[in-house]
Amino acid sequence: MIAPSGQDTPHLYSLSRDQLRLLLGSVFIIAACSLLYELLISSLSTYLLGSSVVHYSLTIGLFLFFMGVGAWMASYIKDNLLVAFISIEIAIGVIGGLAALILFAVYAWTEYYYPVMVLVIAAISLLIGMEIPLLTRILEHTQGLRKGISEVLAFDYLGALIASVLFPFVLLPYLGHLLTAAATGLLNLLVASIVAWHFRHQLTRFRTQLLLSICVGMLLLGTAMLKGGLLTRLFEQALYQDTVLHSEQSRFQKLVVTRWGDDTRLFLDGSLQFSSIDEYRYHETLVHLPLAFAYQHARVLVIGGGDGLAVRELLRYPNVAQIDLIDIDPAVSDLVRSMPVLDNLSESALDDARVNLQHQDAWQWLAAGSELFDAIIIDLPDPQSEDTARLYTTAFYQRVSRRLASGGVMITQATSPWFAPKAYWSIGNTLEEVFSYVRPAKVYVPSFGPWGFFIAADHDLSQPQQKAFEGRYFNSDTLLHTLQPSPDLPRPDVGSNRIGSLSVLEYYREGWNAINHGKAKP
Predict the structure, then answer these.
(1) Are 150 and 24 in contact (CB under 8 A)?
(2) Cβ–Cβ < 8 Å for 517, 429
C-alpha cells in the first residue's frame, strides 16, 4: 500500500499485487489512448486539408517532440506523484476528448487551423510525455527500476498495437472523429477515476478536487458524445454550402451528400465527385469517347466509379455484354443503392445483370487476373494523395495495358488542364511511356470547370472506329471539339509520374495551391 507522504522517496511506494496490476493495466489503456489521439488528429487534418503524408508526419513529429519535453518536465514533479498522475489523466481526457471538436470548429469558422492544431498537439503530448516517467517512479520500489521500466514499456507498446488496429477498422468507420475522440477521452477519465478510487485513502489532500474534476470532465465528454451527431452536422453544414443530406465515414473515406434545389452532390473526403445537374457532361465524355475508338465493346472494365454513373452510360450499348466494376469502397455503392435520388440518377445501373461489381484494390486486382477488355475506363479521384497518385504511375498503366485487348482503348480522368496543367500533362507523359498512341481530351463541366482526360491505345487514334454515341451532350460534333487542343493551354515541360517519386502529386498541389491563393497558373 502507498503510504501518504509529500516527499518523493522511492521506499514510500510499496504497492500491493492488486495495485500493481491496476497501474499496469492503466498503462495499457493510456498507451492506446495516446496513439488514438495521434491517429485522430492526423486523419482529421488529412480529411480537412488533404496531404496525408504531410499531416501524419507532422503530427507524429510534433507528438514525439512534445512528449520528450513532457518527460523532461516530469523530473521536476517531486511530491504527490500519484496525484500528479491522476491530474494528468484528467487533463489528457478532457483536452484529447474535445480535440476533434475543437479542430473541426476552428477549420469551419476561422483561418487558424494549423496554429490551433499545434497547440492541441502540444497540450496532449506534453501531458502524455509525463505519464510514463511518473508511473515508472511509482512502480520503482515494488518492481525495481529495470523491471518497472520493462513492464511499463511492454504494456505501453501492447496498448499502442491494439489502438492501431481498432482505429481504422472499428472506431473511425463506426464512430467518426468526434465520437472516437470523446470516447477516448472518457477512457482516460475512467483510468483516473479507477485509480483515484483504489487509492482514495492515500489521497486525503486532493481527493475532493480530483473527483470533482473527473465528474466535470465526464459531463463535458458525455455531452459531446450525446450531441456528437448534431455537432457533426453543424460543422459539416459550415463546410458545405448546401444542405447536408447524408454524412458517413467509411473505412476508406468520408462520404457526404448535399442538395440545393435540384442539385445533388457527392463529396468524398471533401472533394466534389459529381453534381447531378451537369455530371452527364463528364460521364458521357468518359465513356462514349473511348468506345468511339475501340474496335469492340463486348467486355468493359471500370476502375473506380462506384457511383454507377459511368456504368449507366455503358449500359446504353446493346453490344456491351459484361461490365466489370472495381471499386475499393463498398460504402459508395451501398450509398447509391440506399438513397433514391442517387439510385435514380444512376438508373439503378449497379443492379443490372451485366454488371459484375467487386470491392477490391484495383492495383492488386489488375495484377491478379488475366482477362482482357475491349475498353478500360478509369474514373478515380484526383492524384491529391499518395494512395491515389500511385494509380497514375507508369507501373499502374503497365498493368492496365496488359489487360487491354487488341483494338482496345483506355481512358483516364486526368484532373483539370486549366487549374493543374503540370499534373495533367504529367499524366499524359506517363501514358506515352506505356502506350503507342495517346490523345488529350477536355470537357467543360460547370460544377468543375475545364476538365481533362487522356485516351490511350496501341492502335492509331486519329479516326474513330465507331459512330459517336448521341447523348445529351456527347455526339459527333462534341467528340471533335473534345479532342481539339486549346491554344491557351500549352504543354509544359514536366516529367512522367513514377512509383518512386510520385511527381504528379507535387504538380497537382502546386497547381491547385496557386489557384486557391489567387495566383496565375504555374
Answers:
(1) no
(2) no
Asked whether the beta carbons of 254 and 235 are under 8 A apart, the reply is: no
- Mean pLDDT for the chain overall: 89
Give yes or no: 262 in active site. no
390-403 per-position pLDDT tens digit: 999 999 999 999 99
Instruction: Quote the pTM value.
Output: 0.80
Q: How does DSSP classify residue 227?
A: T
- The reply to whether CATH 3.10.25.10 applies to domain 241-273 is no
Could you name the CATH architecture of 278-516? 3-Layer(aba) Sandwich (3.40)
Q: What is residue 492's three-state secondary structure?
A: coil
Amino acid identity, residue 11?
A: H
In the CATH scheme, what is the code of domain 10-235? Answer: 1.20.1250
Terminal-residue alpha carbon distance, the chain: 69
- Whether the per-residue pLDDT at 13 is higher than 70: the answer is no
> Which cell is 501 given?
517519386
Mean pLDDT calculated for residue range 72-90? 89
Alpha-carbon Rg for the chain, nearest whole angstrom, is 28
Q: What pLDDT shows up at residue 133?
A: 86
What pLDDT does 235 receive? 82
- Catalytic one among 379, 382, 458, 488? 379
Q: Is 379 within 8 Å of 305 (Cβ atoms)?
A: yes
- Which helix (H) or strand (E) element contains residue 334? helix 330-338
- CA dist 378 and 430 (Å) reads 15
Closest CA to 32 of 186, 163, 215, 182: 163
Residue ranges of domains in the chain: 10-235, 241-273, 278-516
**For residue range 235-280, what is the model confidence (pLDDT) as tens digits?**
877 788 789 999 888 888 889 999 999 999 999 988 899 999 999 9
> What would the grid cell of residue 426 be?
504529367
Which distant-in-sequence residues (6+ apart) come within 8 Å of 11 by Cβ? 141
